[in-house]
Amino acid sequence: MTKRIESIAHPSQTKAILQKYGFTFKKSLGQNFLVDTNILNHIVTAANIDNHTGVLEIGPGIGALTEQLAKASKRVVAIEIDRRLIPILQDSLSNYANVTIICEDILKLDLMKLFANELATFANVSVVANLPYYITTPILMMLLEHKLPIQQIVVMIQREVAERMTASPGTKEYGSLSIAIQYYAVAEVVMKVPRTVFIPQPNVDSAVMRLTMRKAPAVEVLDEQMFFSIVQAAFQQRRKTILNNLQSLFPGEHQKATCRTFLESCLIAPERRGETLDLHEFARIANRLVSMRTNLPS
Predict the structure, then answer these.
(1) How far apart are the C-alpha atoms of 251 and 228, rounded to whole Å?
(2) Helices 64-72 and 37-46, interaxial angle, to 10°?
(3) What is the topology classification, in CATH, of domain 224-295?
(4) Per-domain residue ranges of the chain
């Protein structure tokens, strides 16, 4: 009788790999390894991966998710920052010729060059990751702002952060992060994940979130930098009105009065708070301000 080979994500197999290499977790890298194959399969399905798909995986760990991605896709490029994990990955994924492992910090990589060298031949590219909680937002914003040829991003992140990213106007979770994510992508929580399916067990629950990239941003803006500056200013002090948070954008002795008149011209009540404004209203403010400044005499 042939002995069944357990997947890397099986708890006993994960523990055996960790013991074999004497691996110890680094809190500074936010390392929590998923030990539930069913959840990994849900992640692969959520990313719409098939045998024509190219995948960029961030933070493969010991290869539990990488293994499932390799089975389903044409090619996986896995970026791992921890050098101690490279020999483990090379060993645990030795049966998968379609996996390339790169030891780098994803935040320091030239992503356009990476895509050109490793994934240029694929019409469909997904980014899949079990992201460390402490670095979730910088990684996602980097991927979105670079406007890479990606169809979807599927990530395991802290549940609370996922709720903020998918929040609607008027809710306590809604903020500048919600707007930034939804500007570039359609965001949805695919499933909630309990903390009990990780080794070691984190202090919070997680969620799998899917970002489907928009062909064009959700709203048309004349100046993205101005748009995001206004969004940031509007949420700088959540309890203050949009008038109080934006008045600093207007120079001169009568800042508040000028800002009030400006907001009213945008059909925005100055007494509203930033958390009540949707993307279209922020775009209206930003575009009008850009137009005003462009038309000022030099």
Answers:
(1) 19
(2) 50
(3) Helicase, Ruva Protein; domain 3 (1.10.8)
(4) 11-213, 224-295
The answer to whether the CB of 14 falls within 8 A of the CB of 199 is yes
Predicted TM-score of the model (pTM): 0.91
Q: Could you give the strand order of the β-sheet that contains 152-158, starting from the edge strand earlier in sequence? A: 99-103, 75-80, 54-58, 125-130, 152-158, 206-213, 185-193
- Residue 244 and residue 242: Cα distance in Å, rounded? 6
For the chain, give the longest Cα–Cα distance: 86
Q: What phi and psi values does residue 26 have, to the nearest 5 degrees? A: -105, 115
Token code pair at residue 273: 């708070």
Cis status, amide bond into 200, omega within 30 of 0: yes
| Residue range 106-135, pLDDT digits in tens | 999 999 999 999 999 999 999 999 988 889
Is the distance from CB of 183 to CB of 194 less than 8 angstroms? no
**E strand or H helix that includes residue 243:** helix 242-246
Tens of pLDDT, residue by residue over 146-187, are 989 999 999 999 999 999 999 999 999 999 999 999 999 999
Spatial distance between the Cα atoms of 59 and 61, rounded to a whole number of angstroms: 6
The DSSP bridge pattern shows strands 99-103 and 33-34 to be unpaired
Integer Cα distance of 254 and 174 in angstroms: 31
Which amino acid is present at 247?
A: Q
Determine the topology of domain 11-213 in CATH.
Rossmann fold (3.40.50)
